[in-house]
Amino acid sequence: MQENKTVDDINSDSHERFRAARKSTWVSVFVNFFLVLGQIITGIFSGSQGLIADGIHSLSDLVADFVVLIANHKSKKGADDDHHYGHHRYENGASLILGAILFVVGIGMLWSAVNKIQHPEAIPQVHIIALWVALAALVLKELLFRYMLAVATRVKSSMLVANAWHARSDAASSLVVALGIIGNLLGFKFLDPVAALIVGLIVAKMGYSFMSDSLHDLMDRAVDTETEDKIKATLLATEGIEGIHDLKTRRMGDLIIVDVHLEIDGRLSVKKGHDIAVAARNTVLNNYRVLNVMTHVDPVNIDDKSCE
């Protein structure tokens, strides 16, 4: 009962997403490479722990960018003998790895900042150049976030959305670091490691969120109720469908797999019932980001249903 009417459309869409992801990620690699060099080197020579922490965060971005590039390359592969639905879940795996990177980096920042706060006498006076580098990083990261989110929204990629918000977390952390450096320059030396502590909390929290979401998707979490209701309404609107039951959904990367039992008049011929099911399936494929719809036809007595 499965036909490949929209295979070409799905492949074309996947190719567009692959190109967009590759381009936006290489832009991120370029920006983060220079941020890592500038922030860490300046942080060391200016005595700013907050700026060093922000540089390490940018380094995690650089690692994450390469994870995205690898996953993006793998996920565009089609179905084969071992992966009948393709390799779309490489994207879910990449989001899980991105989250793990963020979480580990955040915990490391927290540990370092707490040690500094416990020994305030060891906190150095920060040089003003650290402030200018932090402000420059803030502007670059915010611009990078807006660019990457626009691309991710256009091609509807959760993996690119995760990477874009990773960049936004960098912008937020750079703002905190800049404020901490200002406080240090004004004589409140402890504010620099406090800024590093806040950055660590931001990064760890976001990492945990990404890990949780991607892990649920890898465990076949259903799509949101609103999307399921729309798919259900589309199926019920198909001519010849008297009802549906056992509708199930799960994610495959950024696409959806649907299983559903279709209730069709049992007096119809097998061919007619088949044609109705195919029409319902194709309507869903053509209107939603659905990879496959597995249908099962259940014959029903229309007279009995009308009496219910």
TrEMBL record:
Cell membrane listed as a keyword: yes
InterPro entries: Cation_efflux (IPR002524), Cation_efflux_CTD (IPR027470), Cation_efflux_CTD_sf (IPR036837), Cation_efflux_TM (IPR058533), Cation_efflux_TMD_sf (IPR027469), CDF_Transporter (IPR050291)
SUPFAM superfamilies: Cation efflux protein cytoplasmic domain-like, Cation efflux protein transmembrane domain-like
Domain (Cation efflux protein transmembrane) ranges: 26-219
Gene3D superfamilies referenced in this protein's UniProt entry, alphabetically: Cation efflux protein transmembrane domain (1.20.1510.10), Cation efflux protein, cytoplasmic domain (3.30.70.1350)
UniProt KW keywords: Cell inner membrane, Cell membrane, Ion transport, Iron, Iron transport, Membrane, Transmembrane, Transmembrane helix, Transport, Zinc, Zinc transport
Protein name per Swiss-Prot or TrEMBL: Cation diffusion facilitator family transporter
